[in-house]
Design brief:
About 5% of the residues have low confidence. This protein is globular. The N and C termini lie far apart (about 55 Å). It is of the alpha/beta class. β5 and β6 form a beta hairpin. The protein contains ten helices and eight strands. The longest helix is centred in the N-terminal third of the chain and has 27 residues. The strands form two sheets. Strands 2-5-6-7-8 form a five-stranded mixed beta sheet. Strands 1-4-3 form a three-stranded mixed beta sheet, with helices on one face. The protein has a single domain, classed as Lambda Exonuclease, Chain A (Alpha-Beta Complex), CATH 3.90.320.10.
Length: about 270
């Protein structure tokens, strides 16, 4: 090891590959029959079900995963910084990165995820009020969209799905969590304000999202359906269309070339 750009780049690449390895090892061991199939991820349940079956069945991705890993690392940095700011503001925190799991009636683990934590306010004799805390780092484009719409259910349905599932699983574990404090931070506040007429956007967006038990039940059913379907070796029906959905493209889907949606959709 040496202190030069080439060596540092090589070592960083190895570190990123190491971060990907645990999931890959889990998938490969499941395919070989040495362990149960890996659970679906809470954070990905709103994504294309067909993509999820590719991943769940251990299909090799056709594009590098470093970009998404870097985004996750940026999220970790932002989460740590925002938590410190909120602690300094007098809020309490607990259960950072607490793991939540859901198993079906057969005892198979279907779903798994980690919460950013619970945020609380001490009301003295009345006890501490707790809510789920979810924090995201956003690109300028996504941050503008989030502010313009002011409803995560519409602007970022994958995040709405994520927090509803977390609240549902927490309540199933005996917690009484009725809302999420959703916080988004602009990765580049200057870029987020380009073209804005009038007051500049605050670099931190905050929204309260109420718990909906019916939505939670519906999402758990989706998880069970995708998990069960994947075990058959078949691919989930198309939910995305390359002519309409940005994430159904070679640039953003690591299974696009194997899925070949333009051809398969044309045959239907």
């Amino acid at each position: 090891m040496s202190i030069d750009a080439t060596d540092i780049r090589a070592n960083l690449s190895r570190a990123l590959r190491h971060r990907r390895d645990p999931g890959i090892v889990e998938q490969l061991s499941a395919i070989s029959g040495s362990s149960p199939p890996p659970p679906l991820r809470v954070s990905g349940l709103a994504s294309c079900g067909r993509k999820q079956t590719f991943s769940h069945q251990g299909t090799k991705a056709t594009i590098p995963g470093d970009e998404s890993l870097i985004a996750m690392i940026q999220g970790d940095w932002g989460e740590e910084g925002c938590r410190k700011l909120l602690l300094e503001s007098g809020y309490e925190f607990k259960d950072a990165q607490r793991e939540l799991r859901y198993s079906n009636k057969a005892g198979e683990e279907v779903l798994r995820g980690h919460i950013d934590g619970l945020i609380g306010v001490d009301h003295g004799a009345l006890g501490t009020e707790w809510a789920l805390w979810e924090m995201k780092m956003m690109s300028a484009f996504r941050f503008k969209k989030c502010n313009n719409i002011s409803d995560v259910r519409i602007s970022s349905p994958e995040y709405f799905t994520q927090v509803q599932l977390y609240m549902h699983l927490l309540n199933m574990d005996g917690e009484k969590i009725e809302k999420t404090i959703f916080m988004a931070v602009a990765k580049d506040p200057s870029a987020a304000n380009m073209g804005i007429k009038g007051p500049r956007l605050d670099p931190i967006y905050i929204e309260e999202i109420s718990y909906d038990r019916e939505v939670g039940d519906m999402l758990l059913q989706r998880a069970e359906d995708i998990y069960t379907y994947s075990l058959t070796g078949e691919l989930w029906p198309h939910e995305r269309n390359p002519s309409k959905d940005w994430d159904c493209s070679e640039r953003f889907c690591e299974y696009y070339s194997k899925c070949n949606p333009k051809t398969t959709l044309r045959k239907r």
